[in-house]
Fold:
Amino acid sequence: MIVVPLIVLIPFASAFIGLAVGWNRLAARRVAVVGAGTALGLAVYAAVAVWAGGPSVEIWGTVPTGWIPITVATRADGLGVTVGVMVTVVAFAVQVYSTAYMRPEPRYGSYAALVSLFTSAMLLVVFADDLVVLLVGWEVMGICSALLIGQHWERPEARAAAVKAFVVTRLGDVGMLAGILVLADLTGSFQISALQESAVASTTLTVGLVLLLCGVVGKSAQVPLHVWLPDAMAGPTPVSALIHAATMVAAGVFLVARLDSVFLLSPGALAVLAVVAATTMVLAALAALAQDDYKRVLAWSTSSQLAYMLGALAVGGYTAGLLHLLSHAAFKALLFLGAGVVAHAIGTTMLSGMGGLRRSMPLTYLMSTLGLAALMGLPPLGGFFSKESVLAAAEEAALHAGPLPPWAAWLVLLAGLFTVLVTAAYATRAWLLAFRGPTRSVSATAHDPPPPMRFALVMLAVPTVLLAALAFMPSVVVAMLNPGIGVLAEPAGPSISAGTAALSLALVGVGALSALAEWQRLGGRDPAVSLGPVGPLLADGFGVDRLYEAAIVRPVTALSRLVVAGDRDVVHAYVRGTGSAVRALGRVPQAAQAGRVQSYVTAGLAFVVVLALAGAGAAWW
Amino acid sequence: MVVNGQVLLHVALGVPLVVCIGLAVMPRRTGDRLAPWAGVAASAVTLLALLGAAVLAGRDRGGHFRLVTDAAWAPALDLRWHLGVDGISLPFAVLTALLVFCCSLYTLRVRPEAGRLRAFVAIVLLLEVGMVGTFLALNLLLFFLFFEIVLVPMWFLIAWWGDPHDQPGRTTAATTFILYTLLGSALMLVGFLVVHAQTGTFDMVELAARGGEGISRGAQLVAALAIVGGLAVKVPVWPLHSWLPDAHAKAPTVGSVLLAGVLLKMGSYGLVRVAVPVVPDGVARLAPVLGGLAVVGIVYGALACLGQRDLKRLVAFSSVGHMGFVVLGVATLTPAGLNGSVFAGLAHGVITGLLFFLAGAIKDRHGTSDFDELGGGLYVRLPRLGALLTFAAIASLGLPGLAGFWGEFLALIGSFEPAELLRRPYFLVLLAIALVGLVLTAWYLLAVVRRVCQGEDTIGPRLAVLGDVTPHEVACWGPLVALTLLLGLWPGLVLTVVNPAVQALLAGASL
Structure:
């Protein structure tokens, strides 16, 4: 299908065109919105074509390397087109929203172009059938996110966050690069479908997959490479929506899903993934509990929710994990765009500066309530069903034989249940502090946003609610997400376990009610103060940043100073030494060795040149 | 009219030489007036001639030499006028011609501060003859001759037209450069003589076909030590790099661009073209050491950049790291590694050439390239220049999708699966260290963007008179930006040309 490369190339082209016409705001806006809209239309077309006509892989060319050639191949299958539609929907909403949100920005042109390039890179990841081609999209996305996080580079925290985001994710990416080499060596091809067709269980396969997971851990902000995500909140809010919902962090989950059938061959790699997911799930949710910045609450919740998806993939819940990816994309984009509306209206994202916004911003209140309820997992929203199907998949793997060791499945299940409790508590806390309670002075003058921003909110609210319907149609989900090529067994549909669902609903109740009770007991003040001395530790993200600062950043910086000094004083010293020795000896007529070498060389050189010319002259004559 | 390929190669070498001599004998005032345009015209002819040669030679993608001329020159010395191109040398020659053309175009408007235009242009053209000749030569002595021609003009470029703010510094830099590299070439010549003593020929084609046959194991090692050691100065391989930062930082913009863009590649090209095919056994025995030094250079260069306080010195030091990948590729003795070495060399020429143009433009506008004196806020002061610097920095950190990535990737592939006679676990360790280097590289280049481009503009008003990127600069830098994108998005464009030649080269060396 020629459509598939077009889906990638159209946002790519609109990035360049947008950059060229960036001085003209109106033109830049049109290019950005039309580009994203066209990509959405084509993605929907491709989705319909694939669902009706089946998957396809197409090879557009090969690049020789002297080893295994790189195949420029695209792949359109159920997984790809579904995620493709998700990406383009969110990207379109973000571009429309940004036309209003970024109106006062002097640098709208380059901003919109970067968002287009970002979208294009994610779509390349989604439609690539070659690991090296995928890596191109993967890293281009990384640099776009770094540049967008640094959009407001006048602020020091934005500058620092941009560098941090790229360097930390690149740390994972170099592991992934090694993993790609290992996997390609195993199958003799960089092509993903070839890998899926010929992979067999082996230790080398596990090594390759674990290395590949390094990249996933970095991109999807999992422990221990999660540190870039909370800081990335320094970027403009629509960018946060894009990064957190449909691109960047979703790419990690997508890659594991893309290689699901290969991961299922390696219980070791799945166990590693399960441990990472379980740890991140719990720690990130706890950290979200004590943040004062509303956007940082949402950032930590992203890490935690992505861990659900990766946990689902680890326990063999392919459709459950992807269903959660879809519902999370909808409600998280909704939440971020809602947070952006609030920031736009009152000039801050600090919860301590909000309160009582329900009266002045009714639409935003309603939309954010929907989003937070979906995050908590309240029925009948999409978030409830997708989270329950993740827990059911973990339960299935824990109680019956799963693709990974039972202890790892238990770990995911227990961490998942505990996280339900904490999530309910932090979501309730944020909701109370931002929208309920007495109206603050700044909040009184706030109002709902202009039409483009409203449109984007409502556009995302629809899937937040309606995705729930998919939970009742497991066979449709399977058909929709079927990877098709190179996969032997058809994945199981998402299901919900009544027992676990009842338990997790009870946990939601406990979490939400305890936050509410503390809030009322404290008379509308932050319930997080009840955490006592633990609060600041959680707010600080367990001090991991400071640990890295002390253990990595400072030693490397010190080492670099040492190298600079050493290069000047030690390595170059022998050069200077030889130089002055030569010069000193040169003054002495009976020069010793060193002086002679130089004269020999010079004389020899002159000799060669003269002889050459003489020879040429002789030949001429 | 049928265009003869050999003629094109001679045009490429002859026109700059003739124009150079013409300028030298011309009266000074006429010369100064004519020189910039003469430089542009001569370098344009060379570029077109080599592009024409590429079209003629490109039809046949076999691994052998094309457009060969082989005539006796000085039979007593076994020096022959033996020229030709293959998939390895042609891209380097075209890159050289392109960079010289960009530099000549640049000189039209941005005149060297020290004046003496006639001499400046003549020297740049003489440089071009040496550089292009090095890539075309197929006789070891001829190779050496061209290799040497480059040194003296470069000395003049640095010593006469170098940093106007630091006269003693530029003289020292120029002298260190010439002494150091002269010593290196002397060593290389010794290696060539050893080869000649054993085989009785300087013919590179014949020597490559023999694959070291007829040279005893001991002699191979001695010759390889001398040749690789000599070239390692030029590349430079750590720890022989210490001539480089000063020479690059003190040279005028055009000098830095050509030094980084082409001169370093003459070293790495020599490794691929001469060392590996002529004395394969000797090189194989040195390969582990060479690979080890290469990855030390990668990490060392990155760390040195992280602690650097001057933009031009930083770009200079970044070459140490990037050339580390170029050398690592050679040390793996695999097709992928050699492809990587060639590709990384080309990409480094384009990207670092661009970076030096930008660093030079920044230095010209501010009178300094020191980070503290520059302050931040280039985005505020000169937004287009800032955006271009960001682009070049991102390309330099090896982002997939831009030219810098593929060569490094191929070199890594090489060390993932090195030639069979090398020890794989050792090269896997090298691979891991190189990967750490990649992370550090990203770190320091983004730190440059953060320091120079972003942040507050502390020296703004003083520079109100100096404009942003001019159309003239766009014309000079545009080809480099376009090539960075083109090679990054379609590496096959070059690799389909390089790969057959590399395969043939390694087959001849029977490695």
In short: Chain B is about 75% helix and 5% strand.
